[in-house]
Amino acid sequence: MQIILTQDVKALGKKGELVNVSDGYARNFILPKKLGLEANAKNLNDLKLQKAAEDKRQKEILEEAQALAKDLESKTLDVKIKAGEGGRTFGSISSKEIASALKTQYGMDIDKKKLQLPEAIKTIGTHTVPVKLHPKVTAELKVKVSEQ
């Protein structure tokens, strides 16, 4: 019997997949627990429409991320830090501070977890910080660190 899974089922498949199972397994386990639907013409058509809508939504999300990446790469973020003699800094600039500076200077609300900062910035100058906006889109943000 062919079943369309409505939820992930361990050792069987993921949500939205079309799988072949024995009749007894379908009647006694999958259908009563509402883990899947019988694969008839109506349900197959609904599945096709759901996949098309999901693909369209994913494409829109990707396009938004690409537009945001282009916008981010055109901007330079100015961050100030206290420094002593010889350009030695007191403290460092973390991803949290970069995210809050982005919000105050440009009004862009980017999660600090999306900033791929390998370690905190401890030197004065211009640094590039990779920002992972989408699994397929990574932008380079220029951060200009200057003395306060």
UniProtKB/TrEMBL annotation:
GO biological process, one term: translation
SUPFAM superfamilies: L9 N-domain-like (SSF55658), Ribosomal protein L9 C-domain (SSF55653)
Keyword Cytoplasm: no
Keywords: Ribonucleoprotein, Ribosomal protein, RNA-binding, rRNA-binding
The UniProt record lists the keyword Plastid: no
One GO location term (cellular component): ribosome
Entry superkingdom: Bacteria
Family: Belongs to the bacterial ribosomal protein bL9 family.
Function (record text): Binds to the 23S rRNA.
Name of protein: Large ribosomal subunit protein bL9
Species this chain originates from: Anaerocolumna cellulosilytica
